[in-house]
Amino acid sequence: MVRKPAGKSKKLLLKGEKSKILLVGGGKMGRALLAGWKREGISSKKVLVVEPLDLNRDIISKEGFSYSKTLPEIEKFNPDVIIFAVKPDQIAGVLPWYYERFEKALFISIAAGITIEFIKKHSGIYARVVRAMPNLAATIGQGVTVVAGDNVLEAEYGDFITKLFSSVGSCYWAIEQYMDAVTAVSGSGPAYFFYLAECLMEAAEAHNIPKELAKNLVLQTMKGSALMAYDPDRPVSILRQEVTSPGGTTEAALKVLNQDNRFKNLIKEAVKAAAERAEKLTK
Ligand SMILES: NC(=O)c1ccc[n+]([C@@H]2O[C@H](COP(=O)([O-])OP(=O)(O)OC[C@H]3O[C@@H](n4cnc5c(N)ncnc54)[C@H](OP(=O)(O)O)[C@@H]3O)[C@@H](O)[C@H]2O)c1
Fold it and tell me: Is residue 4 part of a domain?
């Protein structure tokens, strides 16, 4: 069941709020989280980052966070929460070292397709694991994250974990069975909208609209439509019908898009392919 988000930062001290957080992987998503925590007022003193690339380390330092230079430094930090933000194919190699040293820490993985069972298999069966799936829009604080974990962890740390991910957008809890589909819808989702924008820009240019104007037309249309789609009183299907006058221009386009349901079916096939790929990432 999808649960309602616990909401943005609360004034009360949340369970886990005093935690020391180790972020393993300071790449795109790791740095998006750091930026969110900074906005949220989480003290940089409570955060340590493990990141091998000098380029990323420089950015992390400039944002006011520390990165570890040595393994003893990580051991001394002794984190309460470890967030794994490395690539899915790197996580199995990374987990054992951390579990051997910090078996009581709460593990949060944001790796696509990596199940809680897989994480326990590569760390320990008693590992306390939560799985989260953010998306790229987290980099501008407009992401959406779905979190899954067992009921005990959710009851204990749910609000704190929600706070960590609400700092980069919306955060929802769901059962783990949804996660591959979530990955396919919102994890990969920004790429679908970027691709749609690319296609519409190309179509505009094919009608001799200058490149810059085509870009502005498409992006502002996408932004305006997304904002309108939040209208609580008018679902997107109604909004679509409102733009589509019988016999008009929009109807002509939608007839092409959805002849024999082809656009709808294509989107379903694409999401299915992404979900199946997510499922296979641990196999
Ligand atoms: N980007 C997205 O849109 C998105 C959305 C949802 C979920 N995710 C998930 O988020 C995770 C990170 O993705 P990303 O896009 O941020 O990837 P990324 O930019 O490649 O960042 C991962 C970083 O972790 C570093 N790393 C590798 N091994 C490490 C180790 N042992 N200890 C510490 N750091 C290590 C990598 O360094 P090297 O490059 O040297 O290996 C890299 O800088 C992935 O599992 C992905 O599935 C990403």
Answer: no
What's the 26 CA to ligand 1 centre distance in angstroms? 7
Q: Please, which residues have CB within 8 angstroms of residue 75's CB and are 6 or more apart in sequence?
A: 101
Q: Is the separation of the CB atoms in 91 and 111 below 8 Å?
A: yes
Closest to 44 (Cα-Cα) out of 31, 34, 56:
34
CB burial of residue 233 (10 Å; 0-12, 13-18, 19+): exposed
Residue 197 counted as domain residue: yes
- State which residues form the domain around 272: 189-280
145 domain residue, yes or no: yes
Same domain, 139 and 232: no
Residues touching ligand 1 (Cβ under 6 Å) are 24-25, 27-30, 50-53, 56, 85-88, 90, 94, 110-112, 133-136, 187
- Is residue 12 one of the residues assigned to a domain? no
Task: Give 100-147 pLDDT, tens digit per residue.
Answer: 999 999 999 999 999 999 999 999 999 999 999 999 999 999 999 999
Q: Contact 229/236 with Cβ under 8 angstroms?
A: yes
Mutating to test ligand 1, I would choose from 29, 54, 165, 185 the residue with most ligand atoms within 8 A of its C-beta, which is 29
Please tell me whether the overall predicted TM-score, pTM, comes out greater than 0.90 for this model. Answer: yes
Q: Which atom of ligand 1 is nearest to 32's Cα? A: 16
Q: What distance in Å separates the CA atoms of residue 188 and residue 255, rounded to the nearest whole number?
A: 27
Q: Do 143 and 261 share a domain, yes or no?
A: no
Strand pairing report for 143-149 and 128-133 = antiparallel
The CA distance from 181 to 198, in Å, is: 24
Q: Tell me, what CATH number does 157's domain have?
A: 3.40.50.720
